């Protein structure tokens, strides 16, 4: 950790000085990070996840590596050629390789640095760093200190996008542990409808460390479908926060799929600031090797009549570890809240483990809240049923695991992405119909 | 309807704590404050052997290096450990040979509390160890118990008469260094109960300890140790009350249980310390460490608690399931009202194979209180086929109170099956309406519903306690709907 500090400091001093408000914002956050440091295991929120161990003197932040168009073309998900494309290379927004396919009346994609100084400055001022109210730790501040490399997305009032927005995060790990810090700020205006998908690639075969913060604000009558796909391989470390704010009555829906990584930490927040809001959170962590996947979710019900539903499922193979922490806050005024949460885990590997903590904090009385969680093995009876019908043990097992996982995959709205995710899950479970 | 219900709630919250009287007994007290001298004073007062003093001093020195825990979900003013009287004993000339020798004033106190120390109590067949402030004043049915080999006496007596047992088991489940309050307790505990059930003996009657804080400014630090040898069985009850005082009083107890092969220990608590007044003034800080170990195969430990008192409760009765096929159970009803805060739950540590645990926790919050369930279910790598089921339900009465759940589940074995479920709700208007329709008034209906809500736990209590506990629930909450 001490070694990484110098590298980080050097990178912070060296980055191009951003204009306007961002300079001050980044400086503030740099001081905050310097004070807080990286979260250690005794930090309650990081109890099972020692992210600090990746911060060594092998970190690489700036270099002149280049992303070729061919390399990028190889990454494009099949069937999504028409999508709005945002490319992050080594954690910085690559405007030149990003494409907007929807009309300029509907959507605007530009560097965050620019947005902080033009007509979107007000939005940036009020929303940038909103997630820090929930994650006041050093790692969030560290990302904020490098926010000028980020992107700003505005989906205009009433715009229903024809194509999804796909964000490709590419990290070049050919000469050290690549440290990327993408920053994304999304402004979904009234009655707009958006599909936002994030996917990650590790190029170069070395280790990577990504520290990402995505902040989304959705206005009245907006609809957001968000998908995060993590399958970069076992050498990648990830600490990401996706923070979704509902400022008006709207629908937000998130699916997080984690298939590989070394240490993976995902924070997902749904902050429901308006009455009658609706939010859904789904997650699947299908792990093998020594992967540790840690999902922390927060649903903050601040106003009455909100509905939230949450389902996270995990399958742990080999010596992998699944961590789940789901917080539901029901504030004093949030009467008539309905909040449901469920976390289900199957331990397959002999050395696999699961740590889960579903947490309810309720300060209003007229609410219906429930949470449940299970940790167990595959149902012997179900296995027997399949075996008795002539299905081999391996096939029976993958059928059952597939059935378990598919509940989450089915929640992905975009057909191409869903098919892609399903294929990856099938390959992993060696399942074929 | 709503307002009317609020009125009823108001009435309920204003119901007086009926055990709040003070008994005027001459007391023998240690000087205020805590230092090595205090520890030596207590040890000398009890005429303790050198090993006991050494144990206390070691704990005290460790305590000095520790910090008060800040993680519980409770808020309270800082405790000044130098402003507490660590030892207070009702003045008794000599140890009483028979119950007739006990100060009549003292006996009256216990009669007022509904605990008769008289042998007539034989009818109900419960042996009682009564602890007032820092010392045990009477233990009944000793002789009868000793016939079957059961040792049931005060801790100070046990230190004198059964030093080999105390040396072997004291601190074996809850080491002095476990946490801040256990270190404090190990240094200054003044009395408590000791109970030893030899191999193969089924204790012929329920054993019971009654704790009473009487003197002002004192802290109560008692220590309970229960050892059940192979195939032994005992059911143990604990009750507590305190006078109404404006200042907060500290109660930091330690309970240890050892259950060997095929032994069963059932520990029931009805905790009714003074909860403070309507404005949240006064009340007991109840910071208790309770832990049992199923050291042998097929052992069983069951905790049942009804928590209605204390201004702040911080308590996690736990079971270490070390023996194969051992069983741990935890049944709890925690009621908070006014400004009470409770952070309570359990820990089930599965170490042995085929171990089972069951957790049923019911939290009821009213007034401006905060009620938290905090639990841990941990399945170690070698605990094959471990099984746990947890259920924690919260009932909210009123919109100024809060219910929180913090269940930690950590599983490291792929043959374990762990389930957890929790719900939070209020009493439905439709449920009340259903009862009203059938001629049951709102107040009775609520009592009915609350009792139904807590029934699963109440059923676990021994008869003698179930009645008291049900009454307590009724006093605390009858008729309250938010």
Characteristics of this structure?
heterodimer, A: 433 residues, alpha/beta, 2 domains, 11-stranded mixed beta sheet, 10-stranded mixed beta sheet, 9 helices, 21 strands, 22% helix, globular, B: 482 residues, 24 strands
What's the layout of helices and strands?
The complex is a heterodimer of chains A (433) and B (482).
Chain A: H1 2-14, H2 21-36, E1 59-60, H3 69-75, E2 84-89, E3 92-93, E4 107-111, H4 112-115, H5 121-127, H6 138-144, E5 151-155, E6 165-172, E7 177-180, E8 183-188, E9 193-203, E10 208-218, E11 223-230, E12 236-246, E13 251-258, E14 263-272, E15 278-287, E16 292-301, E17 307-316, E18 321-330, E19 338-347, E20 353-362, E21 368-376, H7 380-388, H8 393-409, H9 415-428
Parallel strand pairs in A: 1-7, 2-6, 5-8, 6-9, 7-10, 8-10, 9-11, 10-12, 11-13, 12-14, 13-15, 14-16, 15-17, 16-18, 17-19, 18-20, 19-21
Antiparallel strand pairs in A: 2-3, 4-5
Helix pairs in contact in A: 2-6, 7-8, 8-9
Chain B: H1 2-13, E1 27-29, H2 36-45, H3 50-64, E2 88-90, H4 104-112, E3 126-132, E4 135-139, H5 142-147, E5 151-154, H6 155-161, H7 163-169, H8 180-188, E6 191-197, E7 206-212, E8 222-228, E9 233-241, E10 248-251, E11 254-259, E12 264-271, E13 283-294, E14 300-307, E15 312-315, E16 318-321, E17 327-336, E18 341-344, E19 347-350, E20 356-366, E21 370-379, E22 387-397, E23 402-411, E24 417-425, H9 429-437, H10 442-458, H11 463-477
Parallel strand pairs in B: 3-7, 6-8, 7-9, 8-11, 9-12, 10-13, 11-13, 12-14, 13-15, 13-16, 14-17, 15-18, 16-19, 17-20, 18-21, 19-21, 20-22, 21-23, 22-24
Antiparallel strand pairs in B: 1-2, 3-4, 5-6
